[in-house]
Automatic annotation (TrEMBL):
Lineage summary: Bacteria, Thermotogati, Deinococcota, Deinococci, Deinococcales
Alphabetical list of Pfam families matching this protein: CMD (PF02627)
Organism of this sequence: Deinococcus malanensis
Domain named Carboxymuconolactone decarboxylase-like: residues: 46-127
Protein name: Alkyl hydroperoxide reductase AhpD
Gene3D superfamilies referenced in this protein's UniProt entry, alphabetically: AhpD-like
Domain of life: Bacteria
Amino acid sequence: MNQISWLAVPDEHGAHEGVRRLWSKAEANLGFVPNVFRAQALNGEQFLAWWNYFNLLVNKEGQLSNADRELLAVVVSGVNRCVYCVVSHGAALREYSANPVMADTVAVNWRHANLAPRERAMCSYAEKLTRSPEAMTQADLVPLREAGLSDPQILELVQVIGMFNMTNRVSSALGFLPNAEYHTQGRPKSSS
């Protein structure tokens, strides 16, 4: 197995009990344990606190669709050049959008993707907040509102962007390696 982090990674015997339960649940639901779950298990309580908020924000029913949240994840992660998150959330975007061409294009440059005006407004906002948070003004919300986003949707959008900026930095700083399974996830099966 390749090294998945530049830090030590606990095994099943050294991991926090709650982390082991999460690993088992991931294995049952996904068929594998995401490397980010293993790599952050070194500090079990902190990882579980992060996971609870991440899970609430990204995986539960909310103001935005799962495809919207994954679109934001891929744009932010692409701007930050976070290999783990572009690969893993690119896989999720392929699945939720059922459009692997769009998802792969967004992973490289969202401006080249065939996106609806609402999606373009979200991507533009995500890129600006990621690149220049100090330059944000109230006027930056206008294109989002013009694209039909409500205030609760805008708040969730900002929270998702913030979460991925933080997670990208942790993943990149510690060299997290994405699981091989992500590279084929959400892609059409070969007919050969």
